[in-house]
Design goal:
about 150 residues; alpha/beta; five-stranded mixed sheet; 8 helices; 5 strands; about 20% strand
C-alpha cells in the first residue's frame, strides 16, 4: 500500500525534527494539491514554545488570503493540541489528516464540534516513532504537552 504523499511529507518533517534533537512531530499545509508550508516541532531547537509542527507549517506557508485557508488540508503526524487546533479553527481549515492519536489525543472533539472533517489514519510507523520518543525522552515530551 502506498502512503499518501502529503502524509509522507509530514512524516519526513517529523523525522527531520528528531534528527535535529527535537520532538518528532511534522506537518504540511496543502492547498489544491500543492504544499504551501511544511514544518516540524522546533520547540527544542529554537527554544520557541509556540513552534509545534502545525504552527511551524502555518508559519512557513506565510501570509495567505482567508479563502486559501478555507480550501486547505492540514496533515499532521500527531493529533493536534489545543493551540494548533485553535489556529486551524481560526483560519477555518476544513479538513485535517492525522497520522495517529494513540500516543496523544489532542483537541479532536473540539475540532469535530466546529465542523472540521478529521481523518485519523493510525499509521503504524508514526505510532512507533512517537511511542519510542516518549519512552526515551519523557522529559521533552512532558514539557511539550505542558505536564
Amino acid at each position: 500500500m502506498t502512503r499518501d504523499p502529503f502524509l509522507q511529507a509530514a512524516i519526513d518533517e517529523a523525522r527531520l525534527g528528531l534528527a535535529e534533537g527535537g520532538i518528532p512531530i511534522g506537518s504540511v499545509l496543502v492547498h489544491k494539491g500543492r504544499i504551501l508550508g511544511r514544518g516540524h516541532n522546533l520547540r527544542v531547537q529554537l527554544g520557541d514554545p509556540l513552534l509545534h509542527g502545525e504552527m511551524s507549517a502555518f508559519k512557513n506557508a506565510g501570509r495567505q488570503p482567508a479563502h486559501v485557508y478555507r480550501e486547505c488540508v492540514l496533515y499532521t503526524t500527531l493529533s493536534p493540541c489545543p493551540m494548533c487546533s485553535g489556529t486551524s479553527l481560526l483560519y477555518k481549515i476544513p479538513r485535517i489528516v492525522i497520522a495517529e492519536n494513540v500516543n496523544f489525543l489532542g483537541a479532536e472533539k473540539w475540532l469535530a464540534s466546529e465542523g472540521v472533517q478529521l481523518s485519523v489514519v493510525q499509521d503504524a510507523e508514526c505510532i512507533e516513532l512517537m511511542a519510542r520518543f516518549i519512552r526515551e525522552r519523557p522529559d521533552l515530551w512532558n514539557e511539550d504537552i505542558g505536564v
